[in-house]
Specification:
With about 180 residues, the protein is an all-alpha fold. The protein is built from five helices and no strands.
Length: about 180
């Protein structure tokens, strides 16, 4: 859309355009984030299936690596989704409200949905699902490897480094949870 004159550009129009773009980005990130969860579960299931089929327990150590990479990507997207909501709620909405002399919140949904009954429980359950997917599943694979005859010093050292990285990732999940 081409602007014919600068008179057509107002701060309100710019803020509304920014809001539209941010909500589009947020929607895209939500879809990507949610698909990462399904992809992670499928990838870990594939690792376990290949391990069982091949009889090589060391392959289980690929599950923590997969969960670290996909878990970090999930977490980064989740943080951006929340940051967009916070920006709309705390900056964009109030500024547009000032310009329009609105009596209430301009983007009321951004505040309303955060105060719905049961939100805290749902957020805690989602954190539990995230921790199960990105910590518990890879740790089950790691412990299974440790209990196998394939546990060699270099692979055990690798698994210990992965375990520390998984602990750090888990801490980030808990730290960023908005209960």
């Amino acid at each position: 859309m081409a602007v014919t004159s600068m008179d057509d550009v107002t701060e309100s129009k710019v803020l509304l355009a920014e809001y539209d773009r941010l909500k589009e980005e947020q929607k895209t990130r939500i879809g990507f984030r949610d698909n990462l969860l399904y992809f992670t579960l499928a990838a870990v299931t594939a690792v376990v299936a290949v391990t069982v089929h091949s009889g090589q327990p060391r392959l289980l150590l690929s599950a923590p690596a997969i969960c670290l990479i996909l878990g970090w990507t999930y977490l980064v997207n989740d943080e951006k989704i929340s940051a967009i909501g916070c920006y709309v709620r705390d900056r964009l909405g109030p500024r547009l409200g000032e310009l329009s002399s609105a009596r209430g919140a301009v983007f009321g949904w951004e505040v309303y949905h955060r105060n719905v009954a049961g939100r805290t429980l749902r957020k805690r359950l989602q954190t539990a699902v995230d921790l199960f997917t990105y910590l518990i599943l890879p740790m089950v694979c790691t412990i299974t490897f440790w209990c196998s005859t394939a546990a060699r010093p270099l692979l055990v050292l690798t698994s210990l480094v992965q375990t520390l990285a998984l602990a750090a990732l888990s801490w980030q999940f808990i730290r960023h949870a908005e209960w």
